[in-house]
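Work Package 4 report. The design task specified in the project plan requires that, given a folded chain encoded as structure tokens, an amino acid be chosen for each position. We show below one input record used in the internal validation round.
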């Protein structure tokens, strides 16, 4: 895989008391809303490295390190998905970005969904990738257990489990560098930030708000995604009026890394649905 040559700028902005967000911004003079991309749990803005430069050929793209991740602040938790979405809105206000297509993967998809619910005034379209509106009855306990294992045994104890959930075996064999780069980001995480984000995901439930979404919405999921299975994507599709659902055969949980061309195409098509 190669990264298309593009020249983004980087920065940090204060978005809440004791919270600043780091970002990567491909700023364009082309008309249309900025595409905002939100990464999955324990990743950072580099998660979009195969997607963002391609999208940036046709408009502005902003990749954010969410609260608790990357070079953003890692305050004491617990965190909420609503607070993480509010962080993103504050960042956009700081950057004077007033119209967006917001998209996220896994945890980032939860944040994107909450953002669209809370910020319909500036959200022109929504992309939901490998994600859900609710992780189920046992979510709080399951995510608490994941955080506890990281605290007790270290992030390295989760690497084997994570790799097999992130990527299918053929991809792991063909693209070991992408796998190792993802592992490196994962094990470099801050425990406080990780625990806060796990709590946020365990408590997240946006099911009652889906019917109110009125912007174009595209949903995508890999057929082998065991973390947020096809059934969760179908629940989003059934709950959001006028949404579109695409499944990617053989893909697993981190599709922006595993099948970036598919995700780029999906997001490009979503942007084309925005009425100028």
């Amino acid at each position: 895989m190669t990264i298309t040559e593009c020249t983004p700028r980087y920065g940090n902005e204060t978005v809440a008391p004791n919270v600043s967000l780091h970002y990567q911004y491909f700023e364009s003079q082309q008309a249309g809303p900025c595409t905002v991309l939100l990464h999955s749990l324990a990743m950072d803005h580099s998660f979009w490295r195969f997607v963002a430069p391609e999208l940036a050929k046709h408009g502005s793209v902003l990749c954010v390190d969410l609260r608790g991740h990357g070079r953003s602040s890692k305050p004491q938790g617990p965190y909420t998905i609503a607070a993480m979405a509010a962080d993103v809105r504050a960042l956009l206000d700081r950057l004077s970005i007033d119209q967006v297509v917001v998209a996220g993967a896994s945890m980032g998809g939860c944040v994107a969904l909450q953002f669209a619910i809370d910020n319909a005034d500036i959200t022109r379209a929504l992309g939901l990738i490998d994600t859900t509106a609710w992780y189920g009855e046992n979510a709080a306990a399951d995510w608490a257990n994941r955080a506890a294992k990281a605290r007790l045994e270290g992030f390295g104890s989760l690497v084997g489990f994570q790799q097999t959930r992130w990527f299918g075996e053929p991809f792991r064999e063909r693209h070991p560098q992408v796998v190792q780069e993802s592992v490196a980001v994962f094990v470099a995480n801050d425990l406080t930030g990780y625990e806060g984000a796990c709590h946020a995901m365990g408590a997240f439930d946006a099911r009652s708000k889906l019917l109110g979404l009125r912007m174009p919405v595209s949903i995508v999921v890999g057929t082998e995604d065991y973390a947020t299975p096809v059934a969760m994507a179908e629940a989003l599709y059934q709950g959001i009026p006028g949404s579109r659902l695409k499944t990617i055969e053989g893909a697993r949980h981190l599709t922006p890394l595993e099948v970036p061309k598919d995700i780029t195409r999906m997001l490009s098509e979503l942007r084309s649905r925005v009425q100028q």
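Strands lie at 9-16, 19-26, 34-38, 61-64, 100-105, 123-129, 217-222, 244-248. Validation will be extended to a larger panel in the next phase.
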